[in-house]
UniProtKB/TrEMBL annotation:
CDD domains: Cyt_b561_CYBASC3. It catalyses: Fe(3+)(out) + L-ascorbate(in) = monodehydro-L-ascorbate radical(in) + Fe(2+)(out) + H(+). The chain crosses the membrane at residues 12-35, 55-77, 89-110, 130-151, 163-183, 203-227. Its EC number is 7.2.1.3. The lineage of its organism: Eukaryota, Metazoa, Chordata, Craniata, Vertebrata. PROSITE patterns: CYTOCHROME_B561. It is found in: Late endosome membrane; Lysosome membrane. Transmembrane reductase that uses ascorbate as an electron donor in the cytoplasm and transfers electrons across membranes to reduce iron cations Fe(3+) into Fe(2+) in the lumen of the late endosome and lysosome. Reduced iron can then be extruded from the late endosome and lysosome to the cytoplasm by divalent metal-specific transporters. It is therefore most probably involved in endosomal and lysosomal cellular iron homeostasis. Its main location: membrane. PANTHER family: CYTOCHROME B561-RELATED (PTHR10106), LYSOSOMAL MEMBRANE ASCORBATE-DEPENDENT FERRIREDUCTASE CYB561A3 (PTHR10106:SF38). SMART domains: B561. This is Lysosomal membrane ascorbate-dependent ferrireductase CYB561A3. Homodimer. GO terms for molecular function: metal ion binding; transmembrane ascorbate ferrireductase activity.
Amino acid sequence: RCHQRSVAMLDIPFPPFCAFLGSLGLLCVALVGAWCQHWRGGFSLDGGSRTFNWHPVLMVTGLVVLYGAAALVYRVPSTWNGPKLPWKLLHGGLALGAFVLTVLGLAAVFRFHNSNGTPNMYSLHSWMGLGTVLLFSCQWAAGFGAFLLPWAPAWLRQLYKPIHVFFGSTILMLSVASCVSGINEKLFFSLKNGTMQYKLLPAEAVFANTLGILILLFGVLVVGALAKPSWKRPDSDSLDSCQ
């Protein structure tokens, strides 16, 4: 009885959780923008360091926050009734928007590197990030073909659905890992002079480390919400639902 009472207390409704998660996501975007504006010199399109600053902002906004919002579309209770197509379009549209922002973020960092003679794709962060984007593009294309094209057979959708869900969570966690490693890499490269070394933990390091923790928390909460059984959309095509 005590165990059931504890479980009931932890089983909070999805709407307040979603509001908290949305606020956390907006906070992550605001903090990465403030970091680049206050400590990294702001934003520009001239190919210099201020062009690079678009990279972390667009990656956190698209690959983490907007992608997380797309992943949670089917957890909203109002999507459980009525036609599913509008919510499919919203899910796919949010994911496509996240992908567009991600590509723009990649374009910013490649332009910065090429303008300054910096080699591309040499760090673990860059390998992980590009691999995540490539996996994301395959995930979106496969999801579009399986769930949005009207001639896709039902057996294919049933077969691919658990794979789509698994890789959705996997891509989100890879995105979080890429962003956190990128923040860490940028701090190592930037905080090198005698009074601002990273190991001395200056104000910028504290701020950026906090940003990384919040991004990690956002990703963990999204994956937790996706795994919570009571928040999953009932499968109208399953045997249990038909019974």
